[in-house]
Amino acid sequence: MIDHIVIIKFSETTTNEQLAEVCARYKALKDRIAGIVDIQAGINFSEKSQGYQVLLSVRFENRSALEAYGPNPDHQAVAAFIRDSGRVDSIVLDIEI
């Protein structure tokens, strides 16, 4: 299995409502994209985050599922919403478990 983890920093003008909507749209991908085993998303509450506000995590069956996820239109729509909501930076990690 593969864990795909993304942490995102948004602009100062991004609202809590937008952050919550990012999480909701991301979680909704579970039933729309094949190969997803589990999906989590949440807004950070730690002050140790260096300004990163949202964590997105998805577990895939295998690397092929991860590779198919990137160009998937449903994923691309969520990625566009994230950019439009004021994404400043993100860090992505993929690990095999």
UniProtKB/TrEMBL annotation:
Residues 2-95 form the Stress-response A/B barrel domain. It comes from the Bacteria. It holds the Pfam family Dabb. This is Stress-response A/B barrel domain-containing protein. It comes from Paenibacillus allorhizosphaerae.
